[in-house]
Amino acid sequence: MVMKLFPIVFIATMAVASSANADMATYTCVRNFYVAVNGINASGRGTQAFPWATMQYANDHGGLTGGDCVHVKAGIYDVGKVNHHSVLLTKGGNKNTSTGLIAWIGDPNLATHLMSSSCSSQDIIEIEANYTVIDGFDINASGTVGDAIGGSGHHVEIINNAIHDAGGAGIGLTFADYYSILGNVVYGNASTNPNHESGISIYEPHAISGFTPSLSDDTAQFHIMIKNNIVHDNMEGPAIEGDHTDGDGIILDDWLDTQNPPYSPYPYHGLVQSNLCYNNGGAGIVAYSSQNIKIANNTAYNNWQDTQNPGTWRGELTNSSSHDIKWINNIGIAIVGSGVLSNNTAVLEGVEPPASDANVTWTHNITFDGTVGDASANFGTPTASSEFANFLRNNMAGVDPMLAPPQPNPGSPATGAGQATPVTPPVSLNGSPMATPPDIGAY
Length: 443
Description:
Layout: H1 8-21, E1 31-35, H2 55-61, E2 68-72, E3 75-78, E4 87-89, E5 102-106, E6 112-115, E7 125-127, E8 132-135, E9 138-140, E10 149-151, E11 156-159, E12 162-164, E13 171-174, E14 179-182, E15 185-187, E16 200-203, E17 222-227, E18 230-232, E19 250-253, E20 269-273, E21 276-278, E22 285-288, E23 291-296, E24 299-301, E25 314-320, E26 323-328, E27 331-333, E28 344-350, E29 361-363, E30 366-368, E31 377-380, H3 384-394, E32 396-397, E33 403-404, E34 407-408
Parallel strand pairs: 1-2, 2-5, 3-6, 4-7, 5-8, 6-9, 7-10, 8-11, 9-12, 10-13, 11-14, 12-15, 13-16, 14-17, 15-18, 16-19, 17-20, 18-21, 19-22, 20-23, 21-24, 22-25, 23-26, 24-27, 25-28, 26-29, 27-30, 28-31, 30-32
Antiparallel strand pairs: 33-34
């Protein structure tokens, strides 16, 4: 099959390009502070001429507030362990405006490298502060079974980073609201954490207690946005005993809040748009026990590679026990193998009672598994026959998208075949706005 020619070296090149051209910064620096490998942690420092030595000192003693930017200069930072985390961010900004955020900024071209040789079980960056931005770092979390970036602060932006080799999630945010994950390359994560992690995970988001949205950015439709990321080769490894369950590229996990008190479903909306997910152990993109999400203009290819996951619901684009989910303009390409991999499909919609899949729609998606005419769709729902009939009417099922992965070849049926999306036109992963109507897929 032509898809097996997927050029991984080319994808790696595109990953760097995507991070470099994803102009997504929303902050303005009112005050600037500096950290450098040759800095010294002492009061009265933090200037460009006399920088601090660590991010932790800047957080703990820098007197940071909204509008402050901490520039972490090029070099390798072995961030160690502080309060059971490598970098524990507790000082945040004060409002969701360009001058209300605290931004931590790496040097251009991902020249600022964070790693930890002594943090075997915790996150590299733990964000417990609100109104916080992480922009432009290379985070090599090798050696930890924690997440590369984790935390439960609200109003968190993670943009333009390379995030890799964590035993846990690449990005794992929980229990809060207002997340923007934009323009990152996330790979090689989830290999050793027994809690079953993925590349990008938003788990049980909650409305902020006592917070009344009033600013325009707070009252916008989408509180959670995952856009223009490249997410690949995240997979549970042999160190995780027993059956595997995750290793997904992107997972929207239990937004219905069924697993932990206060059992309060997340009331707002999320957007997953223009992401490329490939070679992951689980799904490319999965909405699990969630609601109120639009998933548009993504490309998912050759996922579900983990044979230690015995599940038979194996969709590149997976809607599992979730309702009010809109799937628009996505490409799902399944590679079907032997054994459990024989269940790989481009699309899966399944529901486990008493959950519901009401108001799940699939429109203008392309599904392909190498056989023209095979819809490559699995509907495990009480209304499977009508769901499948609707799917055949509203999508290009079993149509070769003619990719020179990951982008469409000239004449591809994906070109100009999409419909208007929540962000119109979406921004392609090559950095340019798509035409109207947009293409199908991430490019």
